[in-house]
Amino acid sequence: MLPNSAERTLYLMPVWLGEHGGVEQLPPENIVIASGIDLWYAENEKTARHMLRRMMPGVDLPSQEILRLDKDTTTQEVDRLLDRMHGRNAGVLSEAGMPGIADPGALLVKAAHRRHIRVHALTGPSSIMLALAASGMNGQHFQFHGYLPVKPPERRQAIKRIEQEALRTGAAQIFIETPYRNDALLADLLHTSAPGTHLTIAIDITQPQGSTVTRRVDEWVKAPPSLGKRPAVFILGRA
Q: Do 188 and 155 contact (CB within 8 A), yes or no?
């Protein structure tokens, strides 16, 4: 059974990838839809309220119901979260970018499909797709790995495995890291990867000081950047 437009809808509401920018960076449709929602699912209530205020400066925040949805939310809790819709529309807010992509919103979306709740992903920024588009890597064949292992030995093994897959198939290999571990990941990438492998570093995407740069590993080794605690996307690929 396919849901129709008269039924309740779970909207996936993209938000900014950083602190720069206002409503001019979001599609007008998103603002209109957000103004008709008073139930939100988000990882962090404080961040969600900040995003709602950026989208709708005049929003009545006390009237907005914001429920926690994070990596620790269980399947049973997800069902209870959906119970709160009670026939009304709701929205999912990510910490940054597109809900459901490298984001715990996917668990809620899967449960919504089981209940035949209409799911509507709205247009907005996705750091992963923006990085790939600007990288020059293979946009026809790519794989997203999410976060690599935290422990250095396991992380280096993962890098070797991902690089081998890139060289074998030609597919762009995309991954991310918690910002405070960016420089440790980059050090392992430059130490582990072959000199001729291509590496894209996309940092602070959509922000004024952001950049997306693709170089061979040996070129990065000659002038390694200091990434600091800035949101980044990494892509490995073959020449």
A: yes
* Closest to 177 (Cα-Cα) out of 193, 169, 189: 189
Question: Of 121, 136, 164, which residue sits at a domain end?
Answer: 121
> What is the residue-wise DSSP string for 8-56?
-EEEEE-B-SSS---GGGS-HHHHHHHHT--EEEES-HHHHHHHHHHH-
**198 φψ region: left (φ > 0), alpha (ψ -120 to 50), beta (else):** beta
Place of tokens 């819709």: 85
Q: What are the DSSP E strand ranges found in 49-141?
A: 65-68, 90-93, 118-121
Sequence-ordered list of residues with C-beta below 8 angstroms from that of 128, at least 6 positions apart, any chain: 101, 102, 144, 174, 176, 233
- Encode the chain (239 residues) as per-residue pLDDT tens digits: 344 444 799 999 999 999 999 999 999 999 999 999 999 999 999 999 999 999 999 999 999 999 999 999 999 999 999 999 988 999 999 998 999 998 889 999 999 999 999 999 999 999 999 999 999 999 999 999 999 999 999 999 999 999 999 999 999 999 999 999 999 999 999 999 999 999 999 999 999 999 999 999 999 999 999 999 999 999 999 97
Q: Note whether residue 143 is domain-resident.
A: yes
Tell me how crowded residue 225 is: count the other CB atoms within 10 A of its CB: 15
Is residue 3, in this structure, part of any structural domain at all?
no
Contact between residue 230 and residue 203 where contact means Cβ atoms under 8 Å apart = yes
CA 198 to chain CA centroid, nearest Å = 23
Q: What is the pTM of this model?
A: 0.91
145-162 burial code (b ≥16 CB/10 A, e <16): beebeeeeeebbebbeeb
Q: Would 15 be classed as within a structural domain?
A: yes
